[in-house]
Structure formats: C-alpha cells, structure tokens
C-alpha cells in the first residue's frame, strides 16, 4: 500500500496459521527460553524478551540476557504486566518496530526500535543474509535456519487474526514512520457535549451511543497519507529539517526568513491529508469559509445530514469537531443514519467481492457478459475473478433487465427502515416497476374517462359516498405521510402511498368509478362529481409520490394538469398536499369499509372453493344489525357489480337456505349457495390430488431437516428457507383439508 492507514481502514479476520516455539539461548549458555510467535521473521528486529513479573517460572531470569538466534545480538529479559503467562510459554518476544503493543512495551522500558522492513515488506537489513527477501520468503528461510540449528522446539497449528487493508485485501504491517497527527481530545469534548445537549440529534437515537463510545475513547488522529491524490500537507522544510507550517509557500518562506534572518530554500512535505480530514471541512469550506459569505449565512448550519452508520466516526464526528472548532457552530442539527445496501445474501457490497450492483445497470439494464466484465475488471485480487464470474452467472443468468429510475428510487425508499441494513434483490424492484405500470394504467383510465372536464372547468359535480370516502382517505394519507417524514420513516411514506394508490384508489375506487360512469340511471351531476374526483385524487397522489418518483409523476401530471385547472409547466412547482381535516367524512369511510368487507368475503369464498372468478353467483346476507340491513339495500347494485353476483339478498335467521359456504363479518354472515356452482365429486378429487402433492413436498422437506448433516453443513440461509417451506406447506395442507371438509358437507 505504501501509506499509513487508520485502524478503521483495516479489517482483521480469522485465518489458519502456525505458532512457532523458538529457543532463545541464555547469555551464559545455562539453558534457553522458549518464545512462541506467529511471525518468526520479525525476530530479526527483537530488542527484548518479556515475561510477567509474577510468573514464578522466570522471576529469577529478569534482568539477565538471551542471545537472539540468527542475529547473535544480546537482548535483555524484562518484566511487564502486558505479558499473558497463559499464552504460549509465557515468554514474549518484543519487536517495537513492527508491533503496536510491543512499541508501547518498548517505550516503557526504553528499548531501541529496529525497523527491518522496506515499504514493499521486504527485509531491510544490509548486513543480513535475509536482506531483500520478501517477508514471507524470509519467514520460510528463518524457520529453515532455526530448524537446522535445532532451535525450533515445536510448531503448532494456530488460528490468528490477520489484518488486511479493507480495499486492497493486502496484509498490512505495523511500520515505524514519521506522520502528522491531530490532538483530538480537546476537539472531541465539545463535540460530545453538542449531542448531549440536543444541538445535534441522531436518528435513530441508538447511534448516539455508538458516537459516544467512539468519541470517549478517541485517540490522536494520523492525518498524513503517502498517496498521489489529496490536499498536500501545508508544511515546508529547510535543509536542516526545521518545519514551517503555513497557509501557502510564500507564507512559509516569510516564516523561514524571519527564523533564519535570511532567505532560505524550502521544500514541501510530499504527504497529503487523509481524505476524511478534507471531508470534515466540507460543510463550511464549500460555502466560502473562512470568509463570512452570504452562502455561509444562508446554509450553515444545515438541517439534516443523511449518511450510513459505517462512517459516523470517519466523517460525521470529524465534521462536528471541525465545525465547532472553526465556526463555533454545529454543522447540522439532525443526523439521519440509514442502513447499508447489502447483496441478496446479506454481504456488504464491495468491488473486491465483485458483488456491487451499479444503480445505472438497474435503471438501464445490462447483459450478463457486460455485467461479468464490469465486476472482474480492475480487481486488486485477480484470483477472485472465477468465483465472481460463477456467482454472477448464478444470480443473474439473464443479466439485469431495465427497471427505470423511479422504480429503483421507490424500492430504496420502501426499504429504508431506520438503521437497518437492506438485503437487496431484484424481486423487490420488479414489484415497484409494476407499481409504475399501475400508475400509467390508472392515468390512462382517468384521461379516457374525464375528457368532458376540459369543457366544464368551473362546474362542480355532486359527490356520492365513494367519492367522499376516497377524498377522506386522501386526507388521512396526507397526514400520515407528513408525520412519517417528520420521523424520517421514509419506508412508511413509501408503504403508505403504495397501499393507498394501489389498494384503495386503483383496486377499489377506479372499479367503483367504472360502475358509476356506466350507470345510465346516474345523473349527469353525479357523473361529473366522479370525473372530478378521479382527476383530483390522481393529481394529489402524483404530488405525494413526486419526491420519491420524480420522473413518472411529472410526465403523468403534465397530461392531467389542464383537467385539474392547474397552471404551471411542471409538478415540481406545485404545492405538496397537506391534510384537510374538514374534508374527512367518517360516515363514508365506514360505509365503504362495509362494502369492501362484503365483497372481499365473497371473493375469499370464490378462492377457497376454486370457483371461476368470472362466474356469476347468488349471495345472501344474514344476521347483523339495522345498519347492515340498510347498507344491503343502499349499496346492493354496487356490491353485485364488484363481487360479480347474480343477486344479493338479505334473509332472516329462520329462513330456509341451501348448503352454503360462509364468511363472518362481525355478527353478519355472508353466504354463497354452493350446490349450483360446484361439481362436488370433481372438486373433492382435485383437492385430494393437491393435498397428496403437498404431503410429498412436506415429507421431502422434513427429511432434509431431519438430516443433522444437512442442518450442520448447509448455509444458514438455506436451512432457514427449508424451515419456512416446512411451515408454509403445513399451513397450505391445513387450508385445503378445511376446504375439503366444507365440500364434503355439500349434498351430493
């Protein structure tokens, strides 16, 4: 890598390695200490062997010396509480130049620091026979030489944590260099207080605890990096290595001239600032700081920062520290923390894993060969190419179809549950592409059926119960959306709007509007009310959806704008709908809920009894109260049309009725006579076949889950899916058996 890294840029994972037990001869040749290490090549830089001060095995040896094998240099035996007597032999080699903890031990005991590696991780000891060897080649040679000298006590298999760069995957090494640091504790204290006193709020609040944990344990920040891009460190050196920190070179020269009393030559530090240092300045540096500009006054501090939890410390905390330090004010008031988008298997998306989904490919589509090429090109670990290719072929055998921008945006909004990671798969976005199609179709229906509005812009039609209901629901939805936005619950916003537009406006009101507009007995004034309601609800729905789905809503709104009587070239300039409580008619809401319950009950009976949805049926209502009886008369024609019935009659409790399938709505019973619409024997045969198939599936799934070898070795998500399949199959069998029982009760 050739650069310093933050601890947060290093990923440590368990890997299998070895633990070498090496004999370090005592200086008087009276014996030896056995030292256990996972990195034998670093012994070339050892400067001590440490033992625990209370370890009785070695107490008498503290202060004496051992001869460092292969190097033949005498190093002391020291005592330090850091040593774990239970690890290995209880003797710890101390290499201050290549281990963070060893460095701290070395500082406490004033040990010399020897650096044995080059920036390329090769041995850098000119007088040594290992000079120039790669670290792993050197390891092999060191172990071989120790074995040849009889200094290897034993070699054990060992599980260890190996640190790797989070982007490159390269094993990183502690390496002693000169770096620039920022003392962070004085900056962290006011930043912690800003969250405690409420000037800054984390949403959801649990992330404030993470913030406090990091900030209360903050260490000085290494801000220099040895890479080609970034802001140069503003420090200049003279020939005597005196340092002059200044805004620019001319200012540094003035400082140097004043210091020396004469003109001198300077050269700038070649290091650059950590990217996050530059990013921490972003909230105010982009607004003209350090000048007191109009932009600073207008936009600093901002209202909300939207970010992922993985950079709360990298970026959010540092912006807060710098904002308070350089401007005296917090940079923002709310920090909305969203989850990470992971792949369908729950893995974090990264270029190195080859599982990244480019949003443009989801919007425009991409072929399988092009997707594979995109994922494997420029890999820092080329050996991963075959696995990435195989995984991509398995996940996207036909490539990725085009879903469009709005479907993708709505998908992300609907999945934006606060602070939780998102498992992204194409099934979700496909569902919301269908939602876009639903909007197109709804708009087409409205346009076809509302042409007369263009010739009657100032006339107001009469509204019926269904119109009052959908207008009332629109007001409630507008209120719910506003409340969810205030809580940053964008998932609830998307779900509320999807449910209203699809389940209520399209599935119910459009169907009712078809019936009303096709009713020759309905007055012209009432039909005008229906048409106006269609346009008004569609207009408001598009405006509610616009922030999430900007393109389709603008395109569709332009088509209906004239019929709404609205001026303006685009939906973007229209007001966002707000709740108007005075338009809510609870009586109409109750009436339509009753209609929906009755119609849904008939539809459920159709589904359970496998009756063709196109076939007309008679239906009966029994029980209930006076309101049910009144509704059955008032809305009779509407229910007959919506439920595809021949008739709907209200019967008394003592009426003689044939064998019926039933559904309960409170105290009201919905009955559908079955004798005339079901072939009893054929239906029982069909149900028996279905139950038989499901029992075979149940047996197969149960067999898998009874196999302990499968449960132990199969991926966790596969086992979970099999358990879900087992429960869903049992549920399906129970439903079919209940249906079978009902059919058996019918007269043959």
What shape does the CA trace take?
Answer: elongated
Structural class: alpha/beta
Largest sheet data: 4 strands, mixed
Strands across the major sheet, in which order?
4-5-3-6
The count of β-strands is 23
Determine and state the CATH class of the largest domain: Mainly Alpha
CATH topology of the largest domain: Isoleucyl-tRNA Synthetase, Domain 1
Number of helices: 24
Radius of gyration: 37 Å
Count of domain modules: 6
Q: Roughly what percent helix?
A: 40-55%
CATH architecture type of the largest domain = Orthogonal Bundle
Q: What is the terminal-to-terminal distance? A: 82 Å
Low-confidence stretches: none
What is the assembly state of the chains in this entry? single chain
Mean pLDDT: 91
| Percentage of residues in DSSP E strands | 15-25%
| CATH fourth-tier homologous superfamily of the largest domain | Isoleucyl-tRNA Synthetase, Domain 1
Summarize this, please?
This protein is an alpha/beta fold and 748 residues long. Helix content is 45%, strand content 16%. Strands 4-5-3-6 form a 4-stranded mixed sheet, with helices on one face. Strands 21-20-23-22 form a 4-stranded mixed sheet, covered by helices on one side.
Description:
The protein contains 24 helices and 23 strands. The protein folds into 6 domains: 11-162, Isoleucyl-tRNA Synthetase, domain 2 (Alpha-Beta Complex), CATH 3.90.740; 181-233 and 269-338, Rossmann fold (3-Layer(aba) Sandwich), CATH 3.40.50; 341-402, no CATH class; 423-584, Isoleucyl-tRNA Synthetase, Domain 1; 588-673, hypothetical protein PF0899 fold, CATH 3.30.2320; 680-744, Helix Hairpins, CATH 1.10.287. It is elongated, with a radius of gyration of 37 Å. The mean pLDDT is 91. Strands 4-5-3-6 form a 4-stranded mixed beta sheet, with helices on one face. The protein is of the alpha/beta class and 748 residues long. Helix 14 packs parallel to helix 16.
